[in-house]
Amino acid sequence: MRFRPEQHLRRQSDFRVIREQGRRVNCGSFTLWGLRRAASPSPAPAEPAEPAAGAPAAEPAPSAKTSARRVGVVASTVAVGHAVRRNRAKRRLREIFRRHQEEVPVGCDVLLSARAAAVDAPMPELEHKFVDACRKVFSPKNA
């Protein structure tokens, strides 16, 4: 599956909310935080608007913001190392999310914080840890 732009977490406030309210799993090479986004209530119109003559009634389309699985990846200099290592760790973690995003329920956010081992660990091992962590964080009993 493709990693679309609406799946990127960009705002610092989103990162902060996930760290403060989400569930955390230590995976050794990285830490995964997961959080189910609250459904934003749609504003109720004061009076129902009537469509123009001959025009079909418009239905609100589901917002991409509420329906997408989103991910943010963090790699600090202290935890991972210089820029080349940080960028490699982030690329690898984004690729793991791209391959296994179906493990994350729709409407959930994931924050991945890389560690030095994320650069050198074999990809199958990282993928296995990601899938296990997603199952722990997003299991139905934790809803």
Keywords:
single chain; 143 residues; alpha+beta; Ribosomal Protein S5, domain 2; 36% helix; 16% strand; globular
Count of distinct strands = 4
CATH architecture: 2-Layer Sandwich
Radius of gyration: 19 Å
The top level CATH class name: Alpha Beta
The helix/strand order is: HEEHEHEHH
* Helix percentage range: 25-40%
- The residue ranges in which pLDDT falls below 50 over 5 or more consecutive positions are 40-49, 57-62
Overall mean pLDDT: 84
Discrete helix count: 5
CATH topology: Ribosomal Protein S5, domain 2
Give the termini separation: 26 Å
Name the structural class: alpha+beta
Domain module count: 1
Shape: globular
Largest β sheet strand count, sense and barrel closure = 4 strands, mixed
- Approximately how much beta-strand content do the residues carry? 15-25%
With strands numbered from the N-terminus, the spatial order across the biggest sheet is 1-2-4-3
Question: In a few lines, what is going on in this structure?
Answer:
By secondary structure, the protein is α+β, with helices and mostly antiparallel strands. Helix content is 36%, strand content 16%. It has one domain: Ribosomal Protein S5, domain 2, CATH 3.30.230.10.
